[in-house]
Automatic annotation (TrEMBL):
It comes from the Eukaryota. SUPFAM superfamilies: 4-helical cytokines. Keywords: Acute phase. Pfam families: IL6. InterPro entries: 4_helix_cytokine-like_core, IL-6-like, IL-6/GCSF/MGF. It comes from Oxyruncus cristatus (sharpbill). This is Interleukin-6. GO terms for cellular component: extracellular space; interleukin-6 receptor complex. Gene3D superfamilies: 1.20.1250.10.
Length: 151
């Protein structure tokens, strides 16, 4: 949809130049994915922290991608609920990093300072990385569901 509405596509040069966002990720740096998952509590903490961090980015998307406001609002609510649910599964839930108000405001200010064309690219990058993060989250939760007794 972003590609069609705003001509912001995956292979555009601007996409490559502007990807300086510090979005949450589960990457190869975390080690082999299955090894990473074997450290279940660490995995759950990272997922929950990442979902809480994405909240600020999703609010930005909601403000800039106004034609999809309702969908993004629903996505944001569901993400917050999932972050809270996964946080409750962590042995020490207080170890989950939740960005404080000052951090969120600083990030919002940084994101809002972008020019309009960068705004569209930023929105696309946030949604793309959120999708990737959620794909890995689903894999992790399925794995944990099969190896742990939680519902």
């Amino acid at each position: 949809q972003m590609c069609e509405k705003f001509t912001v596509c995956e292979n555009s040069m601007e996409m490559l130049l502007q990807n300086n966002l510090n979005l949450p990720r589960v990457t190869e740096e975390d080690g082999d994915f299955l090894t990473f998952l074997s450290l279940q509590d660490k995995c759950l903490r990272k997922i929950s922290s990442g979902l809480y961090t994405f909240q600020t980015y999703l609010k930005y998307v909601q403000e800039t991608f106004t034609s999809e406001n309702q969908n993004v609002e629903s996505l944001s609510y569901s993400t917050e609920h999932l972050a809270h649910t996964i946080r409750q599964m962590v042995i020490n839930p207080e170890e989950v990093i939740i960005p404080d108000a000052a951090t969120q405001e600083s990030l919002r200010t940084k994101l809002k300072s972008s020019k309009t064309w960068i705004e569209k690219i930023t929105t696309h990058l946030i949604l793309r990385d959120f999708t990737s993060f959620m794909e890995k989250t689903v894999r992790a939760v399925r794995y944990l569901k099969n190896t742990r007794s939680f519902s």
